[in-house]
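User: I'm putting together notes for a lab meeting next week and I want to include a structural view of one of the chains we've been expressing. I don't have a solved structure, so I'd like a prediction I can at least talk through. The sequence is below, exactly as it appears in our construct file.
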Amino acid sequence: MKKEPDPSRGITLAAIDIGTNAVRLLIKHKDNKPGSKFTKLMMLRYPLRLGFDVFSTGKISENKEKKLIRLMKACKLLIRIHEVDACRACATSAMRDAANGKRIMEKIEEKAGIRIEIIGGEEEARIIYNNHLESTQDKRGNYLYVDVGGGSTETNLIAEGKLLFSKSYNIGTVRMLNKAVEEGSWSELDKDLSCLAEAHPGIEIIGSGGNINKLYRLARRKEARKTRMPVEELERLYRELAPLGLQERMEKFELKPDRADVIVPAAEIFLHIAALVHARFIYVPVIGLADGIIDDLYLRYMAGTRTRRAPLP
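Assistant: Thanks for the context. Below is the predicted structure for the 313-residue chain, given as structure tokens.
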């Protein structure tokens, strides 16, 4: 079911992103004025860290299952308070890999009234690509969109304004911390991106995810009018972060515990990819999967198409 939009107040949409490292609820509103854009009403992030269970034991623990159900109940209440017209809830790598993921989703729908989609890596990459496309300044350049999550890394190559390549790899920050990345995944990534770099010279990276946004802010070398970070600056920052212990990173760089551990493998993944495609810069627009979910939902919702999404409370 979905509510009919009230033209007098515009439309309010919500996205729930159940990620490997954190769960996010994003609510945005768009009024009915011509040319208006979405404005953020609220963003909730809770570091549930499902991946630490899944990549070490193969399933989500009973304790985190209970927390996830409570969190979804809280999301439902916030969706009601904001009078959301439609919502879509997506789960990514950790839930995909969890042996008890399907059972937990059924339990969440029963107890919290929220239906969750487990989306594949290719769908995740498509959503990210669609969201990032509008932020590209030079639509004639070669861009590799890279979203590094806790369980997977999504890549999309846009060359001359067209999507030519989209692929997901089981390489993520939480997987790396749990030593759960298979060597074949690295080999596949290396082979694919080396071929792309040869066929499309001059590739620059557009990075997505909380870690690259934090790394960008820590670099403190933002260029005028451009949200980009030189790869050499990321290398310098990585050399500062990597030797430090968890507590030292938290104190020196003012990082939360759930960011202090994953930020180093995130930097490693971005630097590895940058070396493969010979990128000089990483552009860092402040957008993520949740933003992409809302943009995708808006297009489907306004077109009147039926989508699998969380039912409205």
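A couple of points you could mention at the meeting. The first strand starts at residue 11 and ends at 18. Residues 305-313 have pLDDT under 50 and may be disordered.

User: Perfect, that's what I needed.
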